[in-house]
Amino acid sequence: TSHDMDRAKGTVIFNSAGAHISSHLAAVSLAALDGLNGLCPGVCVNLYLTNAGVEVSAPPHTDMQDVVIVQTQGRKRWRVYSPPDNVAMSGADPFVLGKNGNDLLVETLTLEDSGSELLLEVTLCPGDVLFVPARFPHTTDTLECYDAAAAAAGEEEDGQDSSIHLTVGLDTHVWSMNFVSMRRLGLRKFGKADILRANAAGVGGYDDDGVDGSCIGAINLLSLELREHLFSSVDGCLLSPRGEDPGPLERQHSVRKVAADLELLIAKVDGDSSTWLSFDQCVEVVEQFRAVGQKVFNVHAAMYVAAMEEESERMREPDWDADENMTKDQSERLSIFRVPIFFEQLDGFREELRAWSMEGSGRQGEEPMKHSLLDGDQVEVNFEGGGDISWIPAKIVNVRADDLFDIQLFNGEQKNGIRRAAMKGPHGIGIFL
User: Fold this and answer.
1) Stated pTM of the model
2) Which residues pair with 13 in a beta bridge?
3) Burial of 174 per CB tally in 10 Å (0-12, 13-18, 19+)
4) 73 and which of 160, 164, 298, 385 could share a cystine (Cβ 3.0–4.6 Å)?
5) What is the mean pLDDT of residues 69-85?
């Protein structure tokens, strides 16, 4: 509402809007997923609303996703930088700079020895589209966006509109379809030492035993060629678009091609041949990632199809009032209940991949890990200790040293000292100020 916009300090964010706003954005999300032809297992469309005249609507940060920005109303200025030098910032994860208490300042990016430089400064107008790759720092504002542009277009300053844009996130890295995840989980699966993992004292590398270990430490000290190979996404030919089946021979060819690439990469990173994976082992790793990635793709598609079908069904019920007299079937179709079911399935696939990697490592009996949380992650929290309807959307605003979390609810209220066990996710559900 306009009241929410007035009290928002920066930007109102509607996460996973494509799964909730069925009339338009579900179709956009599904079209993006299909149009990529299997290049990534998931697409997530978020909606951002920012008042005109905001000095910093998003501070400098990087994302795990490649993103496509579509400006639909008003104007917003974007500054995009090249990735900073990984060696100089080896203790930071290049995918989440500027998050989780890891401040990223424009002044830092512009230092001569940062390895980063300003690539683009542009004001987006309605209809403009911008692509920002994962790991590329960027910052936004709506301050004085109308001065130069409006003068050229003959617009009056008092005609400023709030900025609205869609972010189409291409969730390849979010769902571990990259070589760094294949290598890490493959070595764990077959009980091989990992020179990029932290030692027993937690020094030297990543220390996450889950699926999405952070890319810190030793991995950032590798050569640029090896780092970029590890961070690169897997060939899109592994996943089958909706309604298409390449057949077993073509699928086998795709798997073996990626496996050969993985085998060579492991040999380049790990100097000790005793820690290498054989080609057959690499094939098994790629097959597992392909199978899980296909499930993730199918659930994303089903989530957007369900949103579109719900819209069609609602159109046939003109007398339905969402505020009263809803049937049980109608209430269950509301996105606040419908969408979490799909995210539960997606969380299960993440755990499936983690559990597979623990087999043969001597640690398969361990309790399933709770996925690590970062500042800004979207979760669901349960204050009542039971019942499906007790889970409400929230956002992590502070990861504390005592293993507790401070969170912000969808209405802007903040709660402090929340236990990890009281939260599900992370996943994108909700609207946040």
Assistant:
1) 0.80
2) 48, 432
3) buried
4) 164
5) 94
